[in-house]
Amino acid sequence: MGILTDYFSAADDAQAGSAARTGPSSPDPLTNQPVFPTVELKGIDPFVVLGTLAGLLTDRPYAEAKTDPRHGSLVATAGDEGPWVVAVTDALVTALAATTPTALDAVAVRWAATEELEGSDPADLADALRRLSELCVRADDAGHRLYCWTSL
Fold it and tell me: Which residue intervals are annotated with compositional bias (Polar residues) in the record (predicted)?
């Protein structure tokens, strides 16, 4: 089946942690709208694949990009077997929010050529990057941070 990954924005770690059990796209009981702005990106794990993206967007080696203390750091869990909420680095959010659609298309081609995404369609990755970038813009405008809800 693979890993499920929903990227979402929240004001802080405590608020993001509340999504551990139900997921970020669960509806608010009062409004029936998702509690958090969310983008579903199946197979884009917040550890290696997103670290590779961070390296590509910031022109830093993957080994350096993953040293950011927020890179994949555990925010909350619903138990030993998940689901989990992990942080996404502020540097990646800033980079995605500032990158033009044309530049995202070029990054998608480079990203598709990485070992982790070998065989992926660059057009599909470009679409994922545009959706993630839009989420980053909204998060940045609201002063929020980005998180990933992940489950096996």
Answer: 23-34
What residue segments make up the domains of the chain, in order of their start? Answer: 4-16+36-151
Q: Pick the closest to residue 9 from 67, 78, 96, 111 (CA basis).
A: 96
Tens-digit pLDDT string for the chain (152 aa): 578 999 999 999 999 999 999 899 998 888 888 889 999 998 899 999 999 999 999 988 989 988 999 999 999 999 988 999 999 999 999 999 999 999 999 999 999 999 999 999 999 999 999 999 999 999 999 999 999 999 98
Per-residue tokens: 70 = 């927020």
Cα 141 to chain centroid, rounded: 17
